[in-house]
Design goal:
11 helices, alpha/beta, 6-stranded mixed sheet, 10 strands, globular
Length: 272
């Protein structure tokens, strides 16, 4: 075989993937930030693409991906977080020749930067500018946290009328956001748990956060006071200290949108 032929084979082996599907908003935004949008052929329903981005198919939800829908796009690579699945879908895709890349959900800046490096490797795209941007944002947030005189107590909730409140504890995306913004999570349990009426008073939150997908339902937070009158006895309830967090900043671990939301939150904390 000629040297030219060998070189061609080598180029094929290391060529950047041209047909990529991403799942999870934080993963997709990193792929776009790395300049690989031209390779993106489909996303899942938890992704919000820029308004001026090309139209691509939406193939399921990252936890319940359909094999047929994904294979119909003829992907080379499927990229998502650690909760991407179900497992049998990933196995079938892999057996069909699709490369599966699962990234740990970033709970801190160190893991976020590691995810950027991994994606850079997979996509054959330079990561320097994105990494420097993230490092600058993290340094800025670190300084902003240090400037807070007191770390406010924060309660992140999911709520439905007549069903009480569920709070986000440790090992959740809201917890990471709270810590990144300079707050202290008012609850210490892991995951999401229902709160008792007594706990609402005992937790004494200075701020109550909720996802933007519930903003209309919760009337900007005032509905929480109607559904759970005991919240009026807390600092957050007395001061009307509610804040709607961009729901996409909470999907798939810490991402670029999370850094932006943390900055907004920190500015709120600093003014109060």
């Amino acid at each position: 075989m000629s040297a030219v032929a060998l070189l061609c084979i080598g180029n094929i082996a290391v060529a950047a993937p041209e047909r990529v599907i991403t799942t999870g908003h934080s993963v997709t935004e990193l792929v776009l930030a790395l300049g690989a949008g031209d390779s993106l052929i489909a996303v899942d329903s938890s992704t919000r693409l820029p308004a001026d981005f090309k139209k691509v198919p939406v193939v399921g939800y990252y936890r319940q991906l359909p094999v047929e829908g994904l294979l119909a796009q003829n992907p080379q690579v499927l990229i998502g977080g650690e909760h991407m699945g179900p497992p049998n879908t990933l196995t079938l895709l892999q057996n069909s020749g699709v490369k599966i890349v699962r990234l740990p959900e970033a709970q801190d800046g160190k893991q976020l930067i590691a995810n950027i490096a991994r994606l850079s490797e997979v996509l054959e795209r330079p990561a320097d500018s994105v990494t420097k941007y993230v490092e600058h944002q993290l340094q800025s947030l670190n300084s902003a946290r240090a400037s807070l005189l007191v770390a406010p107590r924060i309660l992140f909730v999911r709520a439905q009328e007549g069903r009480g409140l569920k709070a986000a504890g440790t090992d959740t995306s809201p917890d990471s956001l709270i810590r990144m913004a300079g707050g202290v999570n008012a609850v210490a349990f892991s995951g999401y748990k229902q709160l008792s009426d007594e706990a609402l008073i005992e937790l004494r939150p200075d701020w109550i956060l909720f996802s933007s997908d519930q903003e209309a339902q919760l009337k900007g937070g005032t509905a929480l006071l109607e559904w759970q009158p005991l919240l009026k006895l807390t600092p957050a309830g007395k001061n009307g200290a509610f804040f709607s967090v961009d729901g996409f900043a909470l999907l798939g671990g810490m991402g670029l949108a999370s850094l932006n939301e943390a900055r907004k939150l920190n500015e709120k904390f600093a003014r109060n």
